[in-house]
């Protein structure tokens, strides 16, 4: 080898560096960056999410709320959850949710800026509302066919009536990323704060990127730059970041990046839905922001991450199927297919996993089965899918050998694709019926009824 190359390589240190301060593996990676003083997540699964997926029953709605509360773990990280009040079903949901007496997330009503809607909130005993106050000229001129001042005065008159009746308000600046920031947003927020001073209350605002047009780049102009928009509203109006919420949509694949940019720019509240369900291309996934909350704060005890498995199972049982490549919770999120990757994973899972899904999320990591997986790969798949201890299934088990022999025959007969989970379950049921009956309840819902 060339002497100069040998000299260069001689300077490579022998000490190993696994970057444990950043990648502890048994917990989520750590991420330190300037951010809002306090970080919260607010939920709109039962409002915006329901609009974008399907109407939920009373039982389903209450179950989702209970799961959100369990995920919050009594910490207040998941600060509030939005509810409609328009139908008898909506009102039954909010009644049952309030009767649970859970502190977090706090149930809040979503209403339009009308006296009729405000009365509806009052009749249902709500002490806080998220009020739609559309702010762009697209809405003001094309939807209301009025002037800016007329519309803002209308909003403020309804908000004042809410304050007068002891109801807190979070005003939604709908379509903020197409609004006149200095001409409409700033004056409205200033007037809102002045009204709050009059009644001794602290109004909140929701900056809504309604069409997903926002970008997380500092270089972009107002109103499209999310960090610039958030900082401008805070600095020009004086509203504290703890009272600013950001709500984005995913039309350009940037919703998580935009929500992180809003947090970094000073907006404390991140308004999301479970798995990002919502209008058009969806909302910001609440699961993504919870995972980032833990990375940013290191506060793993603040939320119970293993509840996400129960949430995923609930959605799947309700007919919602996550894309298989959905991060963290899709069927392929922690699945290794390439032969060389499988070998590395079985030698040490850290080689091909960003963190340990078992200890962090209570989810297995898997391998895709081909003839090259060997008996060891089959035994590994069974152990992980059925949540067994390391010695709970060995490659020397005769039943494993029978399954593997059948797999080899499939590929000898012309099969080219790895076996799907459903096919592996059928093989387990065929060759290990007693084992399957004993452990089937550990399977995700989508695999419990495989025939």
* H/E element order: HEHHEHEHEHHEHEHEHEHHEHHEHHHHH
- Specify the CATH homologous superfamily of the largest domain: Aldolase class I
Strand content is: 5-15%
Number of structural units classed as domains: 2
Q: Structural class of the secondary structure composition?
A: alpha/beta
Widest sheet, order of strands? 1-2-3-4-5-6-7-8
Mean pLDDT: 94
How is this structure best described in words?
With 451 residues, the chain is an alpha/beta fold. It folds into 2 domains: 40-317, Aldolase class I (TIM Barrel), CATH 3.20.20; 335-448, no CATH class. Helix content is 45%, strand content 10%. The protein contains 19 helices and 10 strands. It has helices spanning 3-10, 45-52, 58-72, 88-100, 115-123, 137-142, 148-164, 181-199, 226-237, 255-265, 286-297, 307-317, 339-347, 357-361, 374-385, 398-412, 421-431, 433-439, 445-448, and strands at residues 40-43, 78-83, 106-112, 128-132, 168-173, 204-209, 244-248, 269-272, 335-336, 366-367. It is globular. The relative contact order is 0.10. The model has no long low-confidence stretch (mean pLDDT 94).
Summary, kept brief:
This protein is an alpha/beta fold and 451 residues long.
Layout of strands and helices, then pairs:
Elements lengths: L2 H8 L29 E4 L1 H8 L5 H15 L5 E6 L4 H13 L5 E7 L2 H9 L4 E5 L4 H6 L5 H17 L3 E6 L7 H19 L4 E6 L16 H12 L6 E5 L6 H11 L3 E4 L13 H12 L9 H11 L17 E2 L2 H9 L9 H5 L4 E2 L6 H12 L12 H15 L8 H11 L1 H7 L5 H4 L3
Parallel strand pairs: 1-2, 1-8, 2-3, 3-4, 4-5, 5-6, 6-7, 7-8, 9-10
Helix pairs in contact: 3-4, 3-12, 7-8, 8-9, 9-10, 15-16, 17-18
């Amino acid at each position: 080898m060339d002497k100069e190359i040998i000299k260069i390589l001689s300077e490579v240190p022998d000490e190993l560096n696994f970057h444990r301060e950043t990648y502890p593996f048994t917990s989520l990676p750590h991420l330190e960056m300037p951010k809002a003083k306090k970080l919260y997540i607010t939920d709109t699964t039962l409002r915006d999410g329901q609009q974008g997926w399907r109407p939920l029953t009373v039982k389903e709605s209450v179950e989702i709320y209970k799961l959100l509360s369990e995920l919050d773990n009594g910490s207040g990280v998941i600060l509030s959850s939005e509810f409609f009040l328009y139908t008898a079903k909506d009102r039954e949901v909010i009644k049952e949710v309030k009767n649970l007496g859970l502190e977090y997330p706090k149930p809040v009503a979503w209403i339009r800026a009308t006296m009729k809607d405000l009365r509806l909130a009052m009749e249902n005993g709500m002490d806080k509302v998220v009020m739609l106050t559309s702010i762009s000229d697209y809405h003001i001129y094309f939807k209301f066919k009025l002037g800016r001042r007329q519309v803002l005065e209308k909003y403020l008159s309804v908000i004042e009536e809410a304050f007068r009746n002891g109801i807190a308000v979070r005003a939604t600046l709908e379509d903020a990323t197409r609004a006149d920031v200095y001409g409409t947003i700033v004056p409205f927020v200033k007037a809102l704060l002045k009204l709050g001073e009059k009644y001794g209350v602290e109004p909140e605002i929701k900056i809504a990127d309604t069409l997903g047009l926002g970008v997380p780049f500092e270089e972009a102009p107002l109103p499209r730059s999310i960090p610039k928009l958030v900082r401008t509203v805070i600095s020009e109006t004086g509203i504290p970041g703890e009272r600013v919420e950001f709500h984005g949509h995913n039309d350009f694949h940037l919703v998580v990046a935009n929500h992180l940019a809003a947090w970094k720019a000073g907006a404390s509240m991140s308004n999301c839905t479970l798995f990002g369900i919502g209008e058009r291309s969806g909302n910001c996934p609440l699961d993504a922001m919870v995972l980032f909350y833990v990375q940013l704060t290191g506060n793993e005890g603040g939320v119970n991450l293993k509840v996400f498995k129960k949430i995923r199972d609930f959605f799947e049982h309700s007919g919602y199927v996550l894309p298989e490549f959905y991060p963290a919770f899709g069927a392929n999120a922690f699945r290794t297919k390439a032969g060389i990757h499988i070998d590395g994973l079985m030698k040490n899972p850290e080689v091909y996993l960003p963190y340990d899904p078992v200890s962090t999320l209570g989810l297995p990591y898997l391998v895709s089965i081909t003839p090259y997986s060997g008996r060891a790969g089959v035994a590994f798949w069974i152990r992980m899918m059925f949540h067994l201890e390391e010695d709970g299934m060995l490659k020397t088990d005769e039943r494993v050998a029978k399954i593997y022999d059948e797999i080899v025959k499939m590929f000898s007969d012309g099969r080219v694709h790895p076996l799907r989970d459903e096919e592996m379950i059928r093989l387990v049921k065929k060759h290990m019926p007693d084992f399957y009956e004993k452990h089937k309840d550990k399977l995700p819902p989508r695999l419990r009824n495989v025939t």
